[in-house]
């Protein structure tokens, strides 16, 4: 049992065959060594010539996404703080209204007590007893 030869000695395709074998070995090595995600990034690097152009685009996109998220977070935080300040001011205004009402009612009660005392004195002086 003879094994077939892996090398084909054709004068025209010898160089092409070597390149094909090297390319096939590289692909096999990538499949064995790299997981799927890193394989995609390696394929992207090969497509861009390995200059890191895809990494630069990815970093720029990530930075842009981070910046937009950061700005949105700041806007939402500012809106929430503004709403809390508005609620505090509204609560303070309501408390001021309630306290002024209580003071006016207290004054009214004091006046009613004075009037009651005056009426009782007048009734006691006039001789009308209960």
TrEMBL record:
Region (Disordered): 36-56
Source domain of life: Eukaryota
Protein name as catalogued: LSME1 protein
Record keyword Calcium present: no
Transmembrane segments: 65-89
Gene: Lsmem1
Originating organism: Menura novaehollandiae
Species lineage: Eukaryota, Metazoa, Chordata, Craniata, Vertebrata
InterPro entries, A to Z: DUF4577
Keywords tagged on the record: Membrane, Transmembrane, Transmembrane helix
A Pfam family per the record: DUF4577
């Amino acid at each position: 049992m003879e094994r077939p030869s892996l090398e084909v000695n054709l004068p025209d395709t010898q160089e092409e065959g070597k390149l094909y074998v090297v390319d096939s070995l590289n692909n096999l090595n990538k499949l064995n060594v790299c997981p799927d995600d890193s394989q995609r990034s390696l394929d992207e690097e090969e497509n861009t010539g390995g200059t890191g152009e895809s990494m630069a685009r990815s970093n720029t996109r990530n930075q842009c996404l981070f910046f937009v998220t950061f700005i949105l977070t700041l806007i939402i935080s500012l809106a929430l703080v503004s709403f809390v300040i508005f609620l505090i001011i509204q609560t303070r205004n309501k408390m001021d209204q309630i306290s002024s009402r209580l003071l006016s009612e207290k004054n009214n009660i004091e006046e009613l007590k004075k009037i009651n005392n005056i009426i009782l004195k007048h009734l006691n002086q006039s001789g009308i007893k209960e």
